[in-house]
Design a protein that fits this description.
By secondary structure, the chain is of the alpha/beta class. The chain has helices spanning 11-22, 39-49, 65-72, 90-93, 95-116, 149-168, 190-200, 219-235, 254-265, 289-295, 303-316; strands at residues 2-6, 27-31, 55-59, 76-81, 119-125, 172-177, 180-181, 203-207, 213-214, 217-218, 241-245, 252-253, 270-274. It has two domains: 2-180 and 216-245, NAD(P)-binding Rossmann-like Domain (Rossmann fold); 183-214 and 249-284 and 301-320, Alpha-Beta Complex (UDP-galactose 4-epimerase, domain 1), CATH 3.90.25. Helix content is 43%, strand content 18%. It has a seven-stranded parallel beta sheet, sandwiched between helices. A two-stranded parallel sheet has the order 7-10. Helix 1 (11-22) packs across helix 8 (219-235). The chain binds nicotinamide-adenine-dinucleotide.
Length: 322
């Protein structure tokens, strides 16, 4: 019996797989190894995981019938679905790939969970909150007005999962991730991207005023949250469904983030002001009340410590992977 992790060559999928393998779980990883960012980084993550004999990897596309039929025949205890077309901006120009990778794939995953009666953990996103004007975004807030098609696919995933969970008697939990960062992270995301640009002394495009606020979550906090959610799902009745934020509720402006990074790297960034981009929300700030109350969990890595841990990894490994 094994836990299936889709998107296992990706940042969060890799980090969760690494932790489960450390606990001697059997893990099956699936990824289509798309080229949204460095394929080399994805392959490095997979070869790291392959050091464990409990890890098996299959290059498959979750939107294909081949993927679905393959797992109809496998023994799996749980699905952790993280594979998705990521990034808000690209969804304005290529919505079809978001339909394919985030909706068709999700349907296949639900069909697998229905057939195998396996519980499901899936990735939603803070983007479902749209231009929420509350200080803290709470799971009970209205999320019916997403600003991008990416956000719309994530909201659809939540509704699709609810319907399958209730009708087909497996359980599922969706997690609304808030800007996850850390070692082995995503080069397209701010902390990694800014580090690359500052060190290369290239121009650093700053979209909008830079006063936008973002709530960052360190990867180990996400990994620990997933551990707790796995236990929660295993102890709940069939048909249980819930949604949780992953964030800490300590948002920071992009300008302040740049200040922290430039002081740690001891280089001033060459900022190039640009127009605000489509789909960008002014701020994200997670309420962590529900994870505290229902899961007795609180993300506890400070941004400064998390950035130090990221930079340690970056100088040792990340900067060598292009
Ligand atoms: N990182 C964040 O801050 C963040 C924030 C909000 C939501 N999320 C969500 O969390 C999940 C994981 O994000 P991540 O940061 O690890 O991204 P990632 O891009 O590093 O990982 C996603 C992986 O899925 C794979 N993939 C995409 N489409 C696929 C398909 N059809 N079949 C098989 N594999 C496919 C990609 O190749 C990639 O390796 C995603 O669903 C993302 O939308 C992440």
């Amino acid at each position: 019996m094994a836990i299936l992790i889709t998107g296992s060559a990706g940042f969060i999928g890799f980090s969760i797989a690494k932790n489960l393998l450390k606990k001697k779980e059997n893990v099956i990883g699936v990824d289509n190894l798309n080229n949204y960012y460095s394929k080399k980084l994805k392959l490095k993550r997979i070869s790291f995981l392959k050091k464990s004999k409990n890890f098996k990897f299959f290059k498959l596309d979750c939107s294909s019938s081949k993927f679905k039929n393959f797992f109809f025949k496998k023994k799996i205890t749980m699905v952790i679905h993280l594979a998705a077309e990521v990034g808000v901006r690209n969804s304005f120009y290529n919505p079809n790939i978001y339909y394919q990778n985030n909706l068709r794939s999700f349907f296949n995953v639900l069909e697998i969970c229905k057939k195998k009666k396996s519980n499901l953990i899936f990735a939603s996103s803070s983007s479902v909150y749209g231009s929420n004007d509350k200080t803290y975004f709470s799971e009970s807030d209205d999320t019916s007005s997403p600003l991008s098609f990416y956000a719309a696919t994530k909201k659809c995933n939540e509704i699709m999962a609810y319907s399958y969970t209730k009708n087909y008697k497996f359980s599922s939990i969706g997690i609304r991730f808030f800007n996850v960062y850390g070692p082995w992270g995503r080069p397209d995301m701010s902390i990694y991207k800014f580090t690359n640009l500052i060190l290369s002394k290239k121009k650093l495009p700053l979209y909008g005023s830079g006063k936008q606020l973002r709530d960052f979550t360190y990867i180990d906090d996400v990994v620990n949250l997933i551990d707790i959610i796995i236990n929660k799902l295993n102890s709940e009745r069939k048909g249980y469904f819930d949604i949780f934020n992953s964030g800490k509720g300590n948002s920071i402006s992009i300008l302040n983030l740049l200040k922290i990074l430039s002081s740690k790297l001891k280089i001033n960034p060459k900022i190039q002001k640009k127009e605000k981009q489509m789909g960008d929300v002014f701020y994200t700030n997670s309420s962590s009340k529900k994870i505290k109350n229902k899961l007795n969990f609180e993300p506890n890595t400070s941004l400064k410590k998390g950035i130090d841990l990221f930079l340690d990894w970056y100088f040792e490994i990340g900067s060598k992977i292009k």
